[in-house]
Design a protein that fits this description.
disordered N terminus
Amino acid sequence: MRHSEGVLSLVLLTALAQSDGGSPLPSALYRASQEAAALVELELPLITTERSDLRWQRALKQPKVKAMLASRAPMDAPESVELAPFDVMRSCLRRTDHRLTVKVLVLMTGTPLQPRPLPHSTFGLGLETTPGYEALKTALIESFDWREERMRAVGADQLWRAQRKALGSDNLYLRHLAAEFLVQHGAAEVLDEVWGAPGSEARVKNEATARVAPDCKG
């Protein structure tokens, strides 16, 4: 399967998963981020003389904790982690050529906490050399602070302020996570208000600019 076909299939599967007659299914990125206890940035050492796939597999065995970026409860950054091998498309790995290190985002989840790659990591999501890395990092960090607001004793216009603002962001990952958060927390009417009614031209355009489809060619 060519890379372009893989990205197209990813987008199509996401759309189909969210077209169910009942409540839309959460996207893989949203679900994984909500289930995680923390977001960590790792740095992997690279040997530039090796073939890209061999270099990657070797690098995964030597992860260095760069920073604890966000957590849902106070915790210290782990001193070290053991990262299970995961594949990344060769077209994405080629972007790491001539680099001595590369950063990667992982989610800490489970009991005990273990690092897990982001969904769609095969397509380069969460890899520093994939376009949009900094935007993705920013979006995930912000989304870790979001909380349920339906029980707050304030007017409706005072609810979901962070998500309303995020829906108008230029950061597609932030838009995506905010839209998912509102729908999964029973506040889809906010999405209708800000992005337009379902099926409208404005809504279709807004949804298109919040679609997560990592692409290493950019």
